[in-house]
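Latent-transforming growth factor beta-binding 4-like isoform X1, Paramuricea clavata. Tokens?
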Amino acid sequence: INECLTNPCSPNGICTNTKGSFGCACRTGFSGNGFNCQNINECVVSSPCHTNANCTDTVGSFTCQCKTGYTGDGFACVDINDCLTNPCHANAVCQNTPGSFTCACTVGYSGNGFNCVDINECNGDPCHANAQCTNTVGSFLCQCNSGYSGSGFLCTDIDECANPVLNNCHQNANCLNIPGSYQCQCNVGYTGNGVQCADINECLTGTACHTNANCTNTEGSFECVCREGYVGDGINCADRDECKDNPCHVNAACENRDGSHRCYCKSGFSGNGQSCADINECLTNPCYTDASCTNTIGTFYCTCNDGYRGDGLQCA
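Tokens:
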């Protein structure tokens, strides 16, 4: 008799007819004695799927499906490189991770990696105090101000005065370096704005020359020279006593005057003081009628004639 024809086994079992009997055995995916078969949850019992797959129990079996970020049949799963589809923002860097990915905005941008906006680095004053900051897309530029040189992060003052090409000061001006620039100042004796300098005629504007000195204007200065008859440096002038040099005739007297002198012949001499000649007083008959006149150098004397007595001016 084939007992299996009456389906004596469990619906999830298999009946095997034997001589004089039969046997029941549970199908694959079920456990029991064949007459009573229970579904086996393979996902719990044996973890048949890949580590990166999800196991789903079914009646008498199971399915394996790779997790998000992985590809395969569930028994073998490999990581999907999500960065190949460019999921991040154009100004972000994609980093593939097992089963996923991360997006990070590049330097100079801020955001979550899916949306990135330019950072205005100039708001943080990254440049030197003497530099200008210019924000650019994803970055910034530092440029030293006029009058400074350097990288923009470090700026040093340019000494324009050390290089004539870098300043336009006049040749008669002094160049004064100041932070970031320079100044031109006309030298003493010149007037102007430093770029143009003209000589000052100190003799017209009033100088320290003495009243008895002559002023001579020179380029950028002036000279004081005491006038004739005076001695000194031109700033101080004193009358020169010409009489000390005996400028007059030996038979003349010298009279010193302010800035000059006068020579005059002594009594008994005539001339201009530089040249003095003896006066022959006898020519004017200064003696008494009965006296003789004798001229001498610078004077004369009278002598009464014989038979007369007196001083020659009076005879008796």
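The first helix runs from residue 42 to 45.
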